[in-house]
Design a protein that fits this description.
Helix content: 10-25%
Distance between the termini: 42 Å
Number of domains: 1
EC number: 3.6.1.-
Strand order of the largest sheet: 4-1-6-5
Pfam family, one: NUDIX
Organism: Belnapia rosea
Strand content: 25-35%
Structural class: alpha+beta
Largest sheet: 4 strands, mixed
InterPro entries: NUDIX_hydrolase-like_dom_sf (IPR015797), NUDIX_hydrolase_CS (IPR020084), NUDIX_hydrolase_dom (IPR000086), RppH (IPR022927)
Number of strands: 7
GO molecular function: bis(5'-adenosyl)-pentaphosphatase activity; guanosine-3',5'-bis(diphosphate) 3'-diphosphatase activity
Length: about 160
């Protein structure tokens, strides 16, 4: 399929201990330890939206807070392709995958500020803090390369 990439932003949110927030997809509730059940907050950008603004909007929509500060921006846009069985189905059927701008952010709040229940149709049903190095093992196979890059390139912010 000759489909475009969807522009997207992602948040690697570090707490004071240097751990990273991952959230469990609500559409995969039995994926406690399975790859792909857990992911970083991320979401599509509106046309013309500044990625640094979009990342805070997405965090607020998905995890209920924007109480964070950007500590780094990944220099590259990172892309992934959907596997064949998801083409034409995932991402509204309009995209071949996503082109993502990733940010490392420091969470400035308290854990109680993270709220997954504010959206009437939440994307996530659970969250936890994990070591950055665990990210690739939590990702679905088609996102694993990006999570490898993030774990390597944002390692200096981890605890």
């Amino acid at each position: 399929m000759d489909l475009p990439y969807r522009d997207n932003v992602g948040a690697v949110l570090f707490n004071r201990a240097g751990l990273v927030l991952v959230a469990r997809r609500a559409d995969l509730p039995n994926a406690e330890g399975a790859p792909g059940g857990w992911q970083l907050p991320q979401g599509g950008m509106d046309p013309g939206e500044d990625p640094a603004i979009a990342v805070f909007r997405e965090m607020e929509e998905e995890i209920g807070t924007r109480n964070a500060a950007i500590i780094a921006e990944h220099p590259d846009w990172l892309s992934y392709d959907l596997p064949p069985h998801l083409l034409g189905r995932a991402l509204g059927g309009k995209y071949r995958g996503q082109r993502q701008k990733w940010y490392a952010l420091r969470f400035l709040g308290e854990d109680a500020e993270i709220r997954l229940d504010l959206d009437p149709h939440p994307e996530f049903d659970a969250w936890r803090w994990v070591p950055l190095a665990e990210l690739p093992s939590l990702a679905v196979s088609f996102k694993r390369e990006i999570y490898d890059i993030l774990a390597r390139d944002f390692a200096r912010y981890a605890g």
